[in-house]
C-alpha cells in the first residue's frame, strides 16, 4: 500500500472517530439507557468504547466497591462480618450521597456452609451474630434529578466479594447442583454458590430468610411500590460477588419478577472479575430469559478461568458431553466479555502478586483508560489513580501512593468520657424488614414458583 493511501486511510479513520465522539456528546443517558443496559448486547459500544457506557460501568463498579469499603473484616472486632454503617447513612459515610440512591435493605447469608475462607468471623466471644455475614445491599434511585438523568428508576443489587484474596477458590466444591428455580432440572450451578445463595439458619435472626428469599421478596416489594414508574434492575458484584450477581439475576428472571402488566423490566448484570457460575444449560437459559451480562475482566486475572478448566464455553464439544454423558464439571460464562489488560496502563507496575490483577479498583482504573482494542490507554474521567492502592500494592512507586492505604481513622477507636480509647458500640442492624414474609408469600403464589 502506498504511503498516500495509508495517510488517507488514517485520516478517514480519525474523521469517523471524531464523528462518533461528537454523536456521543449530543446523546444523553436517558435517551440511550436501554442500549447502555445491554438491550443489543452492547453491539458497537465496546470498540471503540462508548463514553456513556464507560461512565456507567464505573458507576456500577463503585456500587460494588462500596461493599468492600463498608465491610468490617477485622477479626478483633465483635462486629466482624457485618456492615460498618447503618443503611440510612450508608452512602453518606462512603462519600456517595450525591449518587441519588437510598438503601432499601441489607443482605445477609449464613456462614454455616462449606465456604469457610469466604466468611469473616470474630475472635471475640460476644459478637453480633455467630451464624451470619453481611453480603451486600439493595438500593433504589430516589432523587428526582438522578431519575431524570437515568431515564428511569433504577433498582440496584450489589453483592460483596471475598476479602480473603483468592483462597476461597480452593473451597469451591467444583461440582454442579440443580437450581430447581424453574422446571428444567438440567440447569445447574456450582454447588458452593448455590448453598451460599439458598441456605438459611433458623436460629439466627439475620439468616432466618436465605439470601435468595431476601432478594426475591425485596424485588417483589419494590416492583409493586413503583408500579407506575419505568424501572430497570441492575445487579453488580466483584469476584465471588459477581457469581452471586449472575445467580440472583437469573433467579429474578426465572421467577418472572421482572414482568409487570405485560411489559418486561430489563435485568442487567455488570460483573467484575467473576468466575463461571453454571453449566451450558444455565448459560442458554439466561440468554433465553433476556438477562444481559457484561463481564469486565483483566486477562491476567485467574478467577475468570475457573471453575470449568476442562470443559467450558471454549470447548468445541461442550454441548455433547453435557447432554450425552452428563459430564459433572462443565461450565460456561454468560454474556459479553470486556477484556482489559493491566500491562497497557502506564501507571501500574509489574507484579507477581495475583491479588493485584484481581483487584476491583484496578479494574475500574482500566475501564477509565480503555478506549478500544489497540487504542492508546488514556484516562477519560481522570479518575484518581490513588484509588488503585486502596487495598493492594499495584501503582508504580514514583506516584508516591502507599499500598493498602484505606482504613478507618484510628481503626475505629474513639475516646470515651473517661478519656480511654475504646471501640464504640454500634446501633443494632435491622435483620429483615417486617413485611419480608408477606412479599415472599406473594412471590410463591404462582404454582411454578417454588423455593
Q: Can you give keywords for this protein?
A:
single chain, 451 residues, alpha/beta, Rossmann fold, seven-stranded mixed beta sheet, two-stranded antiparallel ribbon, 13 helices, disordered N terminus
Explained architecture:
The protein has one domain: 3-Layer(aba) Sandwich (Rossmann fold), CATH 3.40.50. The protein has 13 helices and 13 strands. The chain has helices spanning 3-26, 29-36, 51-70, 90-93, 144-150, 191-198, 211-225, 240-254, 280-289, 318-324, 355-358, 360-369, 436-443; strands spanning 101-110, 132-141, 153-159, 176-178, 188-190, 231-238, 259-260, 263-264, 267-272, 292-298, 336-340, 414-415, 421-422. A hairpin with a 2-residue loop joins strand 7 and strand 8 (263-264). The model is unreliable at 1-11 (pLDDT under 50). Belongs to the AB hydrolase superfamily. Lipase family. InterPro entries: AB_hydrolase_fold (IPR029058), Fungal_lipase-type (IPR002921). It is found in: Plastid, Chloroplast. This is Fungal lipase-type domain-containing protein.
- Total of helices: 13
The major sheet is characterized as: 7 strands, mixed
Please report the first level of CATH classification, the CATH class.
Answer: Alpha Beta
Order of adjacent strands in the largest pleated sheet: 1-2-3-6-9-10-11
Low-confidence stretches: 1-11
Per the CATH scheme, the topology name is Rossmann fold
Average pLDDT number:
91
Q: Could you state the CATH homologous superfamily?
A: Alpha/Beta hydrolase fold, catalytic domain
SSE run: HHHHEEHEEEHHEHEEEHEHEHHEEH
Pairing-aware structural class of the strands and helices? alpha/beta
The CATH architecture comes to: 3-Layer(aba) Sandwich
Cα gyration radius (Å): 22 Å
